[in-house]
Amino acid sequence: MSTTDPDALLGPADIRELAAALGVRPTKQRGQNFVIDANTVRRIVRTADVRPDDTAVEVGPGLGSLTLALLEAADRVTAIEIDDVLAAALPATVAARMPSRADRFALVHRDAMLVDELPGPPPTALVANLPYNVAVPVLLHMLATFPSIERTLVMVQAEVADRLAARPGNKVYGVPSVKANWYAEVKRAGSIGRNVFWPAPNVDSGLVSLVRRDPPKTTASRAEVFAAVDAAFAQRRKTLRAALAGWAGSAPAAEAALLAAGVSPQARGESLTVEEFAAIAEHRPAA
Questions:
Q1: How high is the pLDDT of residue 31?
Q2: Peptide bond into 201 cis (omega under 30)
Q3: Engineering a disulfide at 132: which of 119, 157, 172, 254 sits with its beta carbon 3.0 to 4.6 angstroms away?
Q4: pTM of the model
Q5: What is the DSSP letter of 80?
């Protein structure tokens, strides 16, 4: 599947030239930081374990740095881009730099949070450089909407990466950690320096790997489990008996649900696994 042209990928001069031609200035509002290093995007694709039979989906392709590296490795690539100018330009960039792969590329010009279907075969891999301000909701939306995605690798702000990959008991373990664990085995998969971006961000970036697994076995729905998670962390310093009082209808009702689930009412949300939250959700009192 791979192209043999070493110059197909975008370097720093290519990125600036493309941006200038399009009149693009990276905006803070959309968290745009373009990757300008070909070795970095190839490393991301390798770490993502993208395979020749994969249908890869990318969110926020920007000027196309990672898109081209994905096209080298995957069977086909679908990119989701919200920005009007970038979405209009990307197919031409792919056609110019990787003409032999252009028919394996599709563009969806839409907000990723509103995407509920994609052209072509179901996606099997999600690889993306996600803006920090929407990283978690976009990731969870894509995992929920496309159960065919087996492997995910996202580049996010280091702090967000730590949160996603945190284990119970860690001080940054919270709602993103639990919800990501519903879908996948989650782990940190490396760090990315600031100098591979234009403009260079004020924060470090991290890679997070998510390998799809079956959700916990439970009679509660995902929405019911996530409601318990949200309630527990809305007041994360409180014991679960207190934090879940509103969710259960009262503190005694919360205590009853916790005891039925085998969880101490004095525990806090940050100590629980997603399986324990699922057990609690099963025992929520009927409204």
A1: 56
A2: no
A3: 157
A4: 0.93
A5: E
Q: What are the structure tokens assigned to 278, written together?
A: 């699922």
| DSSP-derived 3-state class of residue 212 | strand
Pairing of strands 184-192, 205-212: antiparallel
Q: Decide: helix, strand or coil at residue 166.
A: coil
**How far is the C-alpha of 263 from the C-alpha of 272, rounded, in Å?**
9
Classify 66 as helix, strand or coil.
helix
Average pLDDT over residues 138-156: 98
Pairing assessment for the beta strands 105-109 and 151-157 based on DSSP bridges: unpaired
HSE-up (13 A, CA, CB side) for residue 187? 8
Tokens of 14: 């290519």
Q: What is the pLDDT of residues 107-131, one digit of tens each?
A: 999 999 999 999 999 999 999 999 8
Q: Give the span between the Cα atoms of 176 and 163, in whole angstroms.
A: 7
Cβ proximity of 187 and 286 under 8 Å: no
Three-state secondary structure call for residue 207: strand
pLDDT of 99 above 80: yes
